[in-house]
Each structure stands twice: as C-alpha cells, then as structure tokens.
Amino acid sequence: MKKDLLWLIDILPEDIWRLIFLTDGIKSGRIDVSDSLRGYVLGMIFEKPSTRTRVSFEVAMYELGGHAIYLPTQTLQMSRGESIKDTAKVLSRYVDILMARVYSHSSLEEFAKYADIPVINGLSDLAHPVQALSDYYTIYEHFGKLKGIKVAYVGDGNNVANSLLMGASKLGIEFNIATPEGYEPSKIYLDYAKKFSLESGAKIKLYRDPHEAVKGVDVIYTDTFVSMGQEAEAEERRRVFLPRYQVNMKLIESAGNEDVVFMHCLPAHRGEEVTDEVIDSKYSIVYDQAENRLHMQKAILLWMVD
Ligand code: CP
Ligand code: NVA
What we know:
Structural class: alpha/beta
CATH superfamily of the largest domain: Aspartate/ornithine carbamoyltransferase
Strand order of the largest sheet: 7-6-5-8-9
Strand content: 5-15%
Bound molecules: phosphoric acid mono(formamide)ester, norvaline
Order of helices and strands: HEHEHEHEHEHEHEHEHHEHH
Oligomer: single chain
Number of domains: 2
Number of strands: 9
Helix content: 40-55%
Shape: globular
CATH architecture of the largest domain: 3-Layer(aba) Sandwich
C-alpha cells in the first residue's frame, strides 16, 4: 500500500521517533542524505499562500538531489474545473510524490484516493501534520528529550492545534489547551487523542483560562486567531480571542518557569495572538522552529518513498 501523510491519526509513534532521529541526523550532518532523491520529482499543489512550507519542501528536494514543481491551483486546469481525480491520476504519471495545501481536508483525501503516488498534507482546514512533526523535533532539539515535557497551546483549536494534539497523544506528552468555548480542537482529534493517550501515557487537558493552562509548562505555543479561509469571520474571532488569549509577557510569567520557550508555526500576527515583546524575546525559538521545517521535510520525503 502506498504511504500518505494526511493527518497523523494513522502514523505509528515509532515512525514519529524515526522521523525525529532522522531529522536530527540530517541537521547535525551525522547522516548524509545528499543525492538520496536523485531522479525524484515532487509536485506541490497550493490552493493557499505559503512561505515556509513551499520553500522548505522545494529546498529540501533540491538538497536531496531531486526536483520540485510549484503548482498553485490558479495556474492548473483545476481552476477551470478539471477534477481532483483527473489531476491526481495525470500528475501521478509525471511526478513521484505529491504535496498539497488545500482549503478542505476532503480535497486532500480525494487526491490521496486517486493518486498512485504518496500524498503529503501541506496544510488543510483540519490538519498541519508536517508542521507538528517538525515542532516536536524542535522541542526535542531544545530540551534534549520529549519525556516529561509539558506543552500549553493557547488560542484557536485549529489545524495546527489538532496536529500538535495528535502528536502529543502519540508521544506521551502532557498537553494543555486553552481556547474560548466553541473553539476547541476538532472532536475527532480529541476522541482519538483520548484513545492514544491511554496507550502512551499522555495527559491532555482542556482549559478556558490561559494563565491556568501555562502554569509550570516548558513550552507555550500559539497560532493565528484567523486561519486562511476564515477571513469572513475575522472580526468576530478577534472579538472572541482578544485580549484574553494573547500570548504576552504576563502570560509567559504565569508559566513560573524561567526556561519556558515560546513557539509559533508562523506567520505571526504581531499584536494579536502574540506581542512583539514575546516573539522577539529570549524565550522565543520561532526561527529555529521555522528552520527545522527544512530538515524535517527531508526526513519526511525520504520516509515517504522508503
Ligand atoms: N507554518 C507554515 O506552514 O507557514 P507557511 O504558511 O508560510 O507555509
Ligand atoms: N492555522 C494557520 C496556519 C498557517 C501556517 C492557517 O491555517 O492559516
């Protein structure tokens, strides 16, 4: 059966560890992967904008000796009504791996269903698995371990939160989530997280109060209050989230841990979900986090064709 990476629910914990160790080996230079994908081509379908995902995948393919083709949907015949099925079938004859960033997760499932090659989720409304994998590597890199690390996610229970939650539940991490009512992670993710936590020993807790959620944690993570595709709800969302769910110095202090780190998948909306003071502070590891996307993309690409 071909391998797809759509939403982390079906990935084995040992495969997450394998990706983390491979990423570490690649980043440190201990594992030489140059030319490992010579002759391979990655097709990158984008329905939405991207800086990190697009560039890190493209550079990863280049540095692995392969090639990447940027395919924004507005330049494809899909923009004139060609079906996902036909697009997936045809691209499978040209390229070796597909990565797609889509509005609706069901589009991704359709790509995966009809493509004869591995499909990677480069972000959907439901999940951002490649981000979460990279983020757990960053946490591992920073603390030298994942066991015993406590993470608090503050803000919108969106695609990034869903994927971080799933990763935590598979890796046995303590994961607190503070969201306003009605903005919790997706029910399907919460249900699966509960199930996987029983096996991994992870502790997942939902909060309303961000200050309660961050008490004693090692990592405070946030993301935008208005994800791509939610622009029509922007005003309402800002009203619901602000000022209570903003990560500011007061919230950082509530962790009561001088070694706490701040993470954000980026792009950040400075002055909304996070203040300049926090994102530019000594607590912030957001640029290491962004860099690690490149190293993790290489590990993911190699794993997909393994
Ligand atoms: N974090 C992330 O996926 O960034 P981009 O939207 O720039 O790809
Ligand atoms: N939740 C954000 C993540 C961006 C990388 C979005 O979907 O827009």
